[in-house]
Design goal:
By secondary structure, the protein is mainly alpha-helical. Among the domains are: 122 residues, Orthogonal Bundle (Cyclin A, domain 1); 98 residues, Cyclin A, domain 1. Helix 5 packs across helix 8, helix 9 packs antiparallel against helix 10 and helix 10 packs across helix 11. The radius of gyration is 35 Å and the shape is extended. This is Cyclin-K.
Length: 376
């Protein structure tokens, strides 16, 4: 199986950086793509596992390809489309494109080209080859719940701390921690961060042994405090306000469209305006999106752990024939089958009444063996 965890030097030597995209711009592109997947997943009532799987595909894809070659929003739509099938919450490609059209501005939606469905479907084959068909992804959610059940303390404070850690896991998808550390380490680090911010100190837990110096020693061995603090700092950086003179909060439209589509299917994009563009039907301007939870509050709003499944269409079941009444016992060899009909009295040999009955058909049983064939 391929190794999907990278060092800091690998994250600064990506195909995008070799293609002229600076490190901060690439971080912003990753953040925009991950948030788009989360917003689209929430709009389509997809569960957290499906959204998280799509984001992990997104981060892995751009460790092999450049943002200049493949537009981030097309790739994000393709990752969500594939994650829905992997996590058994499938959505149609046209529904994902419709959601993307509602969430994105016109200039950004132009990167989908003349045929958005063909663009996403073609990119799906490239995505599968890029991630080497390694589709199963583990997330920190299950480890977070498992570890939290072992902690002891005030139930109200513990519930608040676990909810805060769950929100931190959601926000960590906007960073690259999912391709730097295992989900067990991420779960431990974000529980540690939530315990610090909620002022809930873990002093006792189920299965505590004398050799356990910290509560996470029972779950993850040899994890250093430097690793935990590095993960916490990457998540906390999301809540820092943008500094003056820094990178713009809104990225420009990406040019040209994705190379996933054939040349005859690519759109002729003009960077000036899109009002008179013949490629996309002009719609009424969409209202600006409200500020995200990360930018609005240091602690995100309440997010439940429910995982709504995809509402499959109610296909009618064809009723089968009614089962016959089971009056007899179990079938052989567990029991003898009852006779199908009552026993009949023995039948006597019929006598044919005709003129030569006594000569050719003597009364009594039928004759024995033919004398021309002596017994052996």
């Amino acid at each position: 199986m391929p190794n999907w965890y990278y060092d800091k030097k690998d994250l600064r030597n990506t195909p995008s950086s070799r293609d002229g995209v600076d490190y901060e711009t690439e971080r912003r592109y990753r953040k925009e793509g991950a948030r788009f997947i989360m917003e689209a997943g929430a709009s389509m009532s997809l569960g957290h596992n499906t959204v998280a799987t799509g984001v992990v595909y997104f981060h892995r894809f751009y460790m092999f390809h450049s943002f200049r070659t493949f537009p981030r929003f097309v790739t994000a739509s393709c990752c969500l489309f594939l994650a829905g099938k992997v996590e058994e919450t499938p959505k149609k490609c046209k529904d994902i494109i419709k959601t993307a059209r509602a969430l994105l501005a016109d200039d950004k939606f132009q990167s989908f080209g003349d045929d958005p469905k063909e663009e996403v479907m073609t990119l799906e084959r490239i995505l599968l080859q890029t991630i080497k068909f390694d589709l199963q992804v583990e997330h920190p959610y299950s480890f977070l719940v498992k570890y939290a059940k072992c902690l002891k303390g005030d139930p109200a404070k513990l519930q608040k701390m676990v909810q805060m850690a769950w929100n931190f896991v959601n926000d960590s998808l906007s960073t690259t921690v999912s391709i730097q550390w295992e989900p067990e380490i991420i779960a431990v680090a974000l529980i540690y961060l939530a315990s610090k911010l909620s002022k809930f100190t873990v002093v006792d837990w189920v299965g505590k042994q004398p050799e356990h110096l910290k509560w996470w020693d029972m779950f993850v061995q040899d994890v250093t405090m430097e690793i935990l603090e590095e993960i916490c700092h990457q998540v906390l950086d999301l809540y820092q306000p943008a500094q003056a003179g820094s990178a713009p909060s809104d990225s420009p439209p990406q040019l040209p469209p994705s190379k996933a589509s054939p040349p005859m299917k690519r759109a002729n994009i003009s960077p000036i305006t899109n009002k008179n563009s013949p490629n996309i039907a002009v719609k009424t301007p969409l209202p600006p999106l409200p500020p995200t939870e990360i930018e609005a509050n240091p602690i995100p709003k309440h997010i439940t752990t429910e995982n709504p499944h995809y509402p499959y269409p109610p296909y009618p079941m064809h009723p089968g024939p009614p089962l016959p009444p089971q009056s007899h016992g179990p079938p052989p060899p567990y029991g003898a089958m009852p006779p199908t009909m009552p026993p009949q009295p023995p039948q006597t040999w019929p006598h044919y009444q005709h003129a030569h009955a006594n000569k050719y058909y003597p009364p009594g049983p039928p004759p024995g063996r033919n004398p021309y064939y002596p017994s052996q």
